[in-house]
Amino acid sequence: MRYNRQTPAETGACLTHQSERETDMRDHKLKHLQNIGKKFNNLTVLDVIHGMLFSDKITRFYYICLCDCGNKKTIRADSVRLSSTRSCGCLWLNNHRNKTHGGSHGIGIMAEYKVWTSMKMRCSNPKFTGYKNYGGRGISFCERWKLFENFIADMGRRPSDQHSIDRIDNDGNYEPSNCRWATRQIQNNNTRRQKT
Predict the structure, then answer these.
(1) Helix, strand or coil for residue 84?
(2) 174 three-class SS
(3) Residue 172 has pLDDT above 80, yes or no
(4) Where are the domains of the chain?
(5) What residues does 46 pair with on adjacent strands?
(6) Average pLDDT, the chain
(7) Does the pTM exceed 0.70?
(8) What percent of the chain is helix, strand and coil (3-state, nearest 5)?
């Protein structure tokens, strides 16, 4: 069996390149660590994570944040720094609630927010109940629906508390073209139809 041997010069170049990448990564992480304790809009950075989370395909930096409302949430660092995400989601809910008459609309929106959160968790968190039937099967949610504002804009409010989110194609992803609000009976009929 033949082995391709690197010359001392090639080996040295590889080690130098690896060392430079490690140095760049340390410098990059240090910049993020310096944001611990800083506040961006409604979010205060508590800690920094580097890894591959949610449905991302590459490793990124994430901030563990404490929102003004008291909720903790892990959010992409660039989204926090660039103000793409300004709260845990409560800011949008409060603004929307203030634009409506009475409190019932706010309660309804909160129900949709729980649906959205559960959808993301069962697609991206292996520890979440039911993950094996969703993320474990390759089911994911579209890039647009990473923001609740986009999800509720596309789906609208549930027609009733008997409706939940349903994928028309049971093997398809969560995205506007494949999702609807449906009752349990309709969902069961859809599942049986696809099995036959």
Answers:
(1) coil
(2) strand
(3) yes
(4) 1-30, 35-88, 90-195
(5) none
(6) 79
(7) no
(8) 50, 20, 35
